[in-house]
Write a structure and sequence with these properties.
The structure holds 2 protein chains of 2 kinds.
Chain A: H1 2-27, H2 84-87
Chain B: H1 3-33, H2 37-40, H3 44-54, H4 70-74, H5 79-99, H6 105-125, H7 129-134, H8 147-159, H9 163-166
The chains are: A mainly alpha, B mainly alpha.
Chain lengths: 145, 191
């Protein structure tokens, strides 16, 4: 008898969950919203890059810090790296900027290099600018305090 | 003086004046016409690289729609400096028509460091005169700038740095062989 109750409870639970996801699916709108496929897409909302003095809080250890300033002027090419203007070992004090982390000089097998390692050359691969945008989906992530 | 002689001197004078006006006019006309962006980019060397690159920058499109053209940054405004620059430009024509030093993008790249260094040297020597035709550091409202900018600009006034000391690559891509991470003026803060 006990077993039968357990099984039917479980089945009921399962039904609830799947039933729920079915209704939830109907609520989800794509980024495109309810706009008709053949119509023009919604107008993009313009957002400004935030410049925040002192930088942004990091949410966890080893997180690449987010970029607290505009970057559209700086180019990263095979010839030169505009970010290093201020974040290089030689210039960072003069430019009152934080120096690139020591980790940026390590090669794949942990050897210390003179120049920024090629693994860390394309800064914007890990460091992103920030805009004051509302999250597209609800997020309850709480950073490490 | 007889009246014939008088007439003669008079007509010489008139002809002289007219010729003068024509010559002066065409000189200034030539100066004006060669001082436009259209003229600068009528050479493919200038259209293909520097102009292409300028279009990515704030001096080509920006919030306010005020823009800088090639001569704004590369040709002095004062008459005498302008004439000197134009005479120097004739050497550039020689390289264009006779030697073809930079007539392909590859050749341009190979020469770019040298060309850029020439511009940097000139700007350093003139205390970035052409930048200052539009930007007056005294008129900058540091409150409205990013802290990064304001800090450095105060230092620039105190220590006499010039715009190009810090703003290399403001209008075109930086040349190969120049490392921005090695070049910043000042001893900066202690420590």
């Amino acid at each position: 008898m006990k077993k039968i109750i357990q099984i039917s409870l479980a089945a009921f639970g399962l039904l609830l969950i799947t039933g729920n996801t079915v209704t939830a699916k109907e609520d989800i709108a794509s980024l495109r919203g309810t706009t008709d496929l053949s119509g023009p897409s919604l107008k993009a909302v313009k957002q400004k890059v935030i410049s925040q003095e002192g930088g942004f809080e990091r949410s966890y250890k080893q997180q690449p810090p987010m970029v607290p300033h505009k970057v559209d002027k700086y180019k990263i090419t095979l010839k030169n790296n505009g970010c290093m203007k201020c974040h290089s070992k030689k210039n960072y004090k003069k430019e009152k900027s934080p120096m690139v982390g020591e980790s940026h000089f390590l090669s794949r097998d942990g050897k210390k290099l003179q120049k920024v390692s090629s693994r860390r050359y394309f800064c914007d691969q890990c460091h992103a600018i920030q805009i004051d945008a509302k999250p597209l989906v609800k997020n309850e992530f709480d950073g490490l305090k | 003086m007889t009246s014939g002689q008088k007439k003669g001197t008079f007509s010489v004078l008139i002809i002289g004046i007219i010729l003068g006006i024509i010559l002066w006019g065409s000189f200034n006309w030539a100066m004006a016409i060669t001082n436009t962006e259209e003229f600068c980019i009528s050479c493919h060397e200038m259209r293909d690289t520097p102009f292409e690159e300028l279009q990515d920058t704030i001096h080509y499109t920006n919030r306010t729609g005020v823009r800088a053209t090639c001569p704004d940054c590369h040709v002095p405004k004062e008459w005498i400096h302008k004439v000197v620059r134009k005479i120097q430009a004739s050497r550039e024509l020689y390289h264009h028509f006779i030697t073809g030093d930079i007539d392909t993008p590859e050749k341009y790249e190979a020469k770019r460091l040298h060309l850029a260094q020439n511009v940097w040297r000139t700007m350093k020597n003139t205390d970035s005169r052409e930048c200052r035709n539009c930007h007056d550091i005294e008129s900058m409202d540091f409150e409205r700038q990013e802290t990064r900018s304001a800090d450095r600009h105060e230092e620039a006034i105190d220590k006499g740095y010039t715009c190009i000391d810090c703003h290399k690559g403001i209008a075109h891509a930086l040349p190969e062989g120049y490392d921005p991470g090695e070049d910043a003026p000042g001893g900066g803060n202690e420590g």
